[in-house]
Amino acid sequence: KSVGVTEGSELTLDALIATVSNDDILELQVPLNLAIADMLSRGQTTTMYVKDYHVTLDATVSVIDGRTTARDEGGVVKMVTLLVKNPGALKVGDEARLQFEHDGTHYTSIGYSKFKEQEPLLIEAKSIGPIEEIHIKEGDVIVPGSPILTLDKADQAIALQTAQIELEQGIIDMALKEKNYAKYFGTAGIDGIVSEINIEEGKAPPVGKAAVIISGHGPLKMRLEVDEADIGMVQLGQSADVYAGSFGNQSFPGTVSRVAARGKVDNNDVYFEVDITINDPGALKPGMTGDADIYTDKKSDVLRLPVNAVSIIDDGLGMVQVVIPAAPEGDESADPALSEDMYGAETGLSKREAKKLAKEMEKQGIDPNFSPTVTESREIVIGIEGDDYIEIISGLEEGDEVIVSGGMGYGDMGYGGVMIYGAKG
After folding, report:
1. How many CA atoms lie within 13 A of 39 on its CB side?
2. How many CB atoms lie within 10 A of CB 256?
3. Which of 46, 105, 214, 304 is deepest in the core (most CB within 10 A)?
4. Distance CA 99, CA 363 (A)
5. 424: β partners
6. Are 283 and 349 in contact (CB under 8 A)?
7. How far is residue 232 from each of residues 51, 236, 316, 364, measured CA to CA in Å?
8. Closest CA relative to residue 79, chosen from 33, 39, 41, 26
9. Using CA atoms, how far apart are residues 396 and 398, in angstroms rounded to an integer?
10. Alpha-helical regions (H) of 17-152
11. Tell me: the pLDDT tens digits for 180-219?
């Protein structure tokens, strides 16, 4: 019907762009009793009777006034607006009334009302910016979806980009605020038992100290300090036995889970931290102290001796004192070294005293047919070494007897502070 803007002008918010009317649609406003008006709904299709032409036309309920209106003749009504498509003969000023059926009963509006032009549709601006092009003029026929105008695209692109930046910045700001807000609530990161609480209500949390300590139900870790001389043999995944002072010799199996890449110095001694993970800690509790054995190598079915039976002379080489068995009694020619004189010279005992010693040894289940002090030094090849035993690769055979320093000798008859040990597989 009319255009309210021009090309090149600046469009402002809510500015009137155009007025659109439809001459094919006429409007009829009718009064209804309140109860009858409540039977209708907006958008409902109903019928009207046109007085001058004695015809019935379909109509659509457009507006049901929410307020009541007092009539000059008396009474209160609600005004209902109907829209009807003009079949061609209707004109403004013709009279009609609403009539419809509801639940088997016929209802009509109060009196006749006059047709009038439909209220024009006002198209208002919902965006701002320079108008680049107007696509309509007065008198044009338009349909839903018809283009009305185009705003300057460059300005709109900049405005859109600015809005997107502001939106993204707003999202970031909101996330930061949510993160900061979450800091006011401390939550547990694991399930477990609260073993220590260092905070109080109404007081600031301690500085440099954990607010709460939670002991988990899962695996435990033991941190060891391994000397730099041994760290080269320690590797991830090696098995270990963990011992705690509270449980004596009871061991708890574990696995090497961490080997520090850098050593620490303490009084000129260098050590490396090693973590042992105990998957099944059993009765172990966090905070207990103890130590661990790490198994860097393991062999079975090998010849072995106690570690204090072997003197290490070089890498892979050792020296042992092998016991030389004495010749049977009466066979002094078998080995001059075991003659009566030599026997006495070696032990400081007479033959009679030696026989007495032999009988005592026999009572205690010790073979008397050897000299406890007649030995020979022998070089052997050694392998891996543990806390108690060392592997013998060559130089001895199973059953060979050697001197072990620090022993108690023959039962209660200590002899030279040594004892005899047979090499075993």
Report:
1. 18
2. 22
3. 304
4. 136
5. 304
6. no
7. 112, 11, 17, 46
8. 33
9. 7
10. 34-37
11. 877 777 777 777 778 788 888 888 878 888 888 877 667 8
